[in-house]
Design goal:
Elements: H1 2-31, E1 50-61, E2 78-85, E3 88-93, E4 99-102, E5 106-112, E6 114-115, E7 118-119, E8 126-133, E9 136-144, H2 150-157
Antiparallel strand pairs: 1-2, 1-9, 2-3, 3-4, 5-8, 6-7, 8-9
Length: 168
């Protein structure tokens, strides 16, 4: 009988934890409902200057690496392909809607250790793009399969706004 009660207590504790996480996720979605809509990708995109595969980590309010944006499916991590096109940065996510950061919105690019609750051992574990949308600053993080290309990305994104030649 003691084992049954102990098992039931552990199960109830686990269920309470899951409910708390779900409730927190929903509360954050309601809190962020007033954020500006994320830009839609253009119908056609130019040829990619840089492309890399990896994992879309998430988008946060700039300067707060743990304040993940959770409106819609923006907060869902997913395997993705990151492409630098003349129009901006396209993030094609597997199993989730694609994201797009217009070139004129890009404010900064850097490597970082953590974003959206994901922490890496290396100081250069994530590629982070800071961008502005209707006066609101966001940080979008990507963990590439090949981290050796991060310097190329940071250099290219630092030349915003991008044009077809990739020059400021």
């Amino acid at each position: 009988m003691t084992r049954v009660l102990l098992s039931l207590a552990v199960f109830l504790f686990f269920a309470l934890c899951v409910y708390g996480m779900w409730h927190g996720w929903k509360r954050r979605q309601r809190k962020q409902a007033g954020l500006p809509a994320f830009p839609a990708p253009p119908q056609t995109l130019g040829a990619a200057r840089l492309t890399t595969t990896g994992v879309y980590i998430g988008t946060t309010n700039a300067g707060n690496w743990q304040d993940r944006i959770q409106v819609g499916d923006i907060g869902h991590r997913a395997e993705a392909t990151l492409s630098l096109v003349p129009e901006g940065v396209a993030i094609d996510r597997v199993g989730a809607t694609p994201l797009f950061i217009p070139a004129e919105s890009i404010r900064d690019a850097r490597t970082d250790r953590g974003l959206a609750g994901k922490v890496m051992f290396s100081e250069q574990g994530l590629l982070v793009v800071q961008w502005e949308n209707e006066g609101h600053l966001f940080d979008t993080g990507f963990r590439g399969d090949d981290k050796d290309v991060y310097d190329d990305w940071v250099a290219a994104l630092s030349q915003h706004p991008l044009n077809t030649e990739g020059k400021a």
